[in-house]
Design a protein that fits this description.
elongated, 6 helices
C-alpha cells in the first residue's frame, strides 16, 4: 500500500484490502521489529562476506565465513537474503589437462623453422587441436589451415582427442 499511495488514495486501498484505516497508520508509525533490524544487519554482513570471498562461495561456505567473523545465521536465511539481493556465486571450472607430453608416439620434425611465407596455395598446411567448453561437456576441434591464404581447409569435431579426429579433419 505504501508504494501504491501515489496512484490510489489510502482510504480506497484500505477498503479494497479490508484493512482498517487506523490499522494502516499504526503500522506506518510502528518501529521495525527486531527480526527486521536483524535482517538488515545480515544483508550488510552477507554482502561483505560475498565481497571478502571474491564472490566464489555458495551459502554453506558463506555461513562458515560469517561464523569465522562472529556472526551466526542459518543457511535458509542466507539463501533467502542472497536471492533478495541478487547475489550469486561465480562458477569456476576446474582445469582439465588435454596434452600428454609423455607419449611414445613419434614426433614430426619442424620443417618450417618459423618461415611462414608460402609461395603458392596447398604448399604448406598447419594443424592444431583446441577444446571448447559446452553445456554438454568438452568439444574438441582439429583443424588444418593453408598458410598461403589463411583459409581452413579441413576440420573435425569430436568428444575425444584421438588420432581419428585429426585424420577426419584431413579428409
Amino acid at each position: 500500500m505504501n508504494k501504491l499511495r501515489l496512484h490510489y488514495t489510502i482510504p480506497f486501498m484500505c477498503r479494497m484490502l479490508s484493512v482498517s484505516l487506523s490499522g494502516y497508520y499504526a503500522w506506518r508509525k510502528r518501529p521495525l521489529s527486531n527480526h527486521a533490524l536483524e535482517e538488515g544487519r545480515f544483508e550488510v554482513e552477507i554482502k561483505a562476506a560475498h565481497k571478502r570471498t571474491r564472490g566464489t562461495c555458495g551459502p554453506e561456505r558463506l555461513q562458515q565465513d560469517l561464523v569465522a567473523h562472529g556472526i551466526t545465521v542459518g543457511i535458509s536465511r542466507i539463501r533467502r537474503i542472497r536471492e533478495k539481493l541478487g547475489i550469486r556465486c561465480k562458477q569456476t571450472k576446474k582445469f582439465k589437462a588435454t596434452t600428454d607430453s609423455k607419449h611414445t608416439l613419434p614426433v614430426a620434425e619442424n620443417l618450417l623453422e618459423q618461415n611462414f611465407k608460402v609461395p603458392s596455395p596447398n604448399w604448406v598446411w598447419v594443424s592444431d587441436i583446441t577444446y571448447i567448453s559446452t553445456d554438454e561437456g568438452w568439444l574438441y576441434c582439429a583443424a588444418h589451415k593453408d598458410l598461403f591464404n589463411g583459409e581452413i581447409v579441413g576440420y573435425a569435431l569430436g568428444s575425444r582427442i584421438t588420432k581419428d579426429l585429426v585424420m577426419r579433419s584431413l579428409l
